[in-house]
Amino acid sequence: MRPEHWLFTIPLRLRSLFRWAQADQELDDELRDHLERKTEEYVAQGMTQEVAHRRARLDLDGIEQTKEKCRDARRVNWIQDLIQDTRYGFRMLRKSPGFTAVAVITIALGIGANTAIFAVIYGVLLRPLPYAEADRLVQLAETSERGTDEMDVTATELHRLRDFGPVFEYIAGFTEVGFNVAIGNAAEHVRGMPVSADYFNLLRIHPALGRDFLPDEDRGEGQRVAVLSHAFWKRRFAADPGAIGRTVLLNGETYTVIGVMPGNFDPRATSFLSLGLPVDVWVPLATVAKTAGSGQNIPVIARLKPGVTKQQLNSQMQLVTEAFRKEFADDVPPQKSMAFLPYDFMIGVDVRPFLLVLLGAIGFVLLIACANVANLLLARGSFRSREIAVRTTLGATRVRLARQLLTESMLIAFAGGAFGWALARAGLQSLLSIAPFDTPRLNDIHLDGSVFGFTLFISVLTGALFGIAPAIHVTKTNLNNSLKEGEGRASGAAGRSRLRRALVIGEFAMSLVLLTGAALLIATFARLMYTNPGFNPHPVLAMRFWLVGSKYHSTPEIASFYRNVEQRLSALPGVQAVGIVAAGLPLERGGNSSTKLAGTIESEWLPCKYREVSPNYFRAMGITLFSGRGILDTDTEPSNAVVVINQAFAQKYFPGRNVIGEHIYASGLREVVGVVADVRTFLGKPPDPTTFIPAAQVSYEGSKVWEGWFPRNIVVRASGDPLALAKAVRDTVESIDPVVPTGAILSMEQMMSRSEAPRRFMLLLLSTFGGLALVLATVGLFGVISFAVSQRTREIGVRIALGAGRNDVLRMILSEGLKLVLIGALLGVAAALALTRVLQEMVYGVSTRDPLIFFLVNVLLAAVSLAACYIPARRALRVDPMVALRYE
């Protein structure tokens, strides 16, 4: 089209769109003027006025038809049609308030639940990280056939990685420790992050005040320096800009403050030990590496150079993997490979499978809701067949009618989307309140423009899903039958009936999948309730505390502090026993160590868990002693070194032997004096081999980082509610020494609840989704059977008039509904067998193909379906043959 033509047509189209009434009037005047001139021409040729007028109209192909052609030529007619369809759709929906309310509420439930779950998934997995060019940030991972996991390295390995840096702009390591901060005559425990000097450059984040770390400081040279968080700076230094250059006492050592981070900086680090504490202090990574020897547990992140492709990165990592296998064979075995994967992907790698399961589950709920509304539209279409036939007779095309019906569906979808958005806003906070406490990026989960865009998208998608099929079927109208009085409702009924039954079958199949998943998790929780955790959690209280940086440096000083705490707490009313443990409570990952069996020439270092405990720890925790003895008050530093092991250790490393009197290397050569019950780290996994070492025999030299990673815990067995003792326990410890900071106080029942938080979260949501799906599917079945009964009223009356008994009619109606449920159940079982495998990591003590679970779920479906079919069947039994024979 030539430019000058555009200059003419665009204003005309805009005028036709925004001033359509004036444009139509002008078009009408022009056509009438043309008609009059044509008529005059024919009259001049000798025709009569009537004949000339008819001939002129024929030449124009009809006034109204020509108007439509002119409107179509403007290319804006579809907008006017859409406005007209929307107005008509509103009127039709307003005429059926019951139908509209049910349809909108059904869709709102589906869209609202999907919006809330998507908000979680977007916040955790998809929301861009708040760093410049975040797509170039990658994190070191190890990959194998079992999947992908974060890979931690030593300080030596981190320096070696820097030798393979042609594709990296920066490489940095970081870890997480705790710091005791001395504040006058009191102390505060804060979360800290030792990081490489390039850490802040890598993230493109720099201090708001002062500077970050220099390369020399990263090597551990010069004075100790620290960068503070904005919140800590305000709390500790009252937001004084003069804080730069001042000192702060961390773990008993003086650090010079060199910088303060911006208030909106939130590092993407999580820890099961931090319990949600924010990061308050950053120090050079060399602090950890020098204190902890090899500097284990260092995650690595990097920033790619501009233009580096994924293929180049993978090629480089193949070289790195081969080199590390030669130099660090224990850390990179042949079955594993090293890779740098997107940082945002790695942050959510542990929760990704669970969130995707939730997304699939809630997608099923939305599909069931769509199927229900489609069924409603098909039933409604049966009563609109006469209207459709009249409109077709008057010239409406099938496309035009389908567009009108689809517009009505879109109005329902948009209304459902609006109410769904409101439901999501109300339900998201409830969802977050039951989410596991260690879910990454919880602060990034909220409703925003991206989530609104998703809601808008699924509103359009659902409108199309539940609207297209009914629109097509309803417009397949037999004009002759539909225009006959009494036969309009039967027109096209066979096709619509088959579609409605297919939709119900699909609903029950998807409901069975969701209910099976929920049943598997319910069975898992039932098994976990009967799983012995190895200790008696009722009623036990645990409180964290930290000695690092205090006046307690030697083993005798620490042992004396322990005895003082135990004696003072034991004197409190309602306290039965008091113990102390370091390096992790039960149901926590705790300290990892290795052991070696004495007296075996070729013995090698074997992995195990490690705990430091006081003499009364086993009694306070209710841990059963199976053989030998526990730890005594006389097991002090000068005495013979002893160790207590658990049953898993004895069975794995001393199979079939009496282990009492054997010797192992565990922080030195020690004699095994006792065997206790297996205390589990995870309820759903086998117990780990564990050693328990007397706290009075532990050398605490060079253990500051260890204590930063793993706080000590006081455990108190109470005679009543343990949480009622919380304040008294904290006050007592602080009265003994106010510069020893105390932390979280939890009952062991709360610890057990936290350990099962991911499973419980999935159970609650899958049970909710499964129940909602079952309700929707049952409503759909009820609607189909009720509609079938109303359509077959005449047939039922004839059957009764011919002698059919009540049981015969009841059997006929029930069998029709149960047949649909049976087909849906068969399809659902096949789908559940394939899809419930994704729950393999979350189930315990039960197979994802457990026949009993599938049987019980099918029994539940059958019972609910029978109830849904029985109500319309009872109505069929009350049909009066005389009334039915006169039906329509």
Short key terms for the protein model shown above:
5 domains; seven-stranded mixed beta sheet; six-stranded antiparallel beta sheet; alpha+beta; elongated; single chain
Rg, rounded, reads 38 Å
Number of domains: 5
**Residue share in helix:** 40-55%
Q: What coarse outline follows from CA principal-axis ratios?
A: elongated
Strand content: 15-25%
Largest sheet: 7 strands, mixed
Mean pLDDT: 82
Number of helical elements: 30
Amino-to-carboxy terminus distance:
59 Å
| Number of E strands | 24
Structural class assignment:
alpha+beta
Report low-confidence residues grouped into runs of 5 or more.
3-8, 269-275, 485-491
Question: In words, what does this structure look like?
Answer:
The chain has 888 residues and is of the alpha+beta class. The chain folds into 5 domains: 73 residues, no CATH class; 196 residues, no CATH class; 189 residues, no CATH class; 161 residues, no CATH class; 194 residues, no CATH class. 53% of the residues lie in helices and 16% in strands. The strands form 3 sheets. Strands 5, 6, 7, 8, 9, 10 and 11 form a 7-stranded mixed beta sheet that branches. Strands 1, 2, 3, 4, 12 and 13 form a 6-stranded antiparallel beta sheet that branches. A hairpin with a 2-residue loop joins strand 1 and strand 2.
